[in-house]
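WARN no homologs supplied; continuing
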Amino acid sequence: MTARDVKRRLAKSLAPLQPRRALVAAGRHLTDRALTRAANALGGLEQGRWLAETGSNVPNLADRFAVFDQAMNRLTGSAPLYVEFGVFQGRTMRYWASKVAFPGARFVGFDSFQGLPEDWQPDAQRGSFAVGKPPEIDDPRVSFEVGWFDDTLPNWTVPDHDQLVVNIDCDLYSSTRTVLDWLRTRRAPGTLVYFDDLFNRDHQWRALREWLGHDGAAAQPVAMARWGHHMLFQIPPSS
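OK structure emitted
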């Protein structure tokens, strides 16, 4: 074997390592923000592949409020229960209460109002979004459960209702998993589940993938906005 043959074999054996070597070298110069953007870009690719694999032809709407309107169009009774996880200043809670006029509807917001319990993104660290107290909403159908989800949910008595709507706007994987675990025994045909922040691969998108693989296997995507940043699912009424 000649020296040239040895070099060729060595180059061939090392070829699969070259792309990773380049990535590791580039990673040495990335900021946390840039690395987060790269991870979220990969999440977008995963989401697109998932939509293709499932054959889902989900309409992309103008914004989250257009998605909410689609959810409201799917209300079939007169006593829906809208549960929101991550209230912040109450904008979406006000929207739902103003649009759904049924006297028997209930709107319950869960939030500590102390901000995120852990870091989420480089520009959203622990304590971000703290507002200190629930928003003031002049509607007797609206109420709030103040505290961390894993403290308030186990002791909460679910009001009577004929359809459940869940708005998951709590950003973090851990918080989203807590909500989805609670939903496990409470979902029913017709239940609507909205995810607000699917752009983050390591948080809500990760929790959604796990849910669809187990408890949410029957759920079908019905509307989205910002190309999957926000997405609405429904447990088929006939399931």
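Strands lie at 60-61, 80-85, 106-111, 142-146, 163-168, 192-195, 220-225, 230-234.
OK
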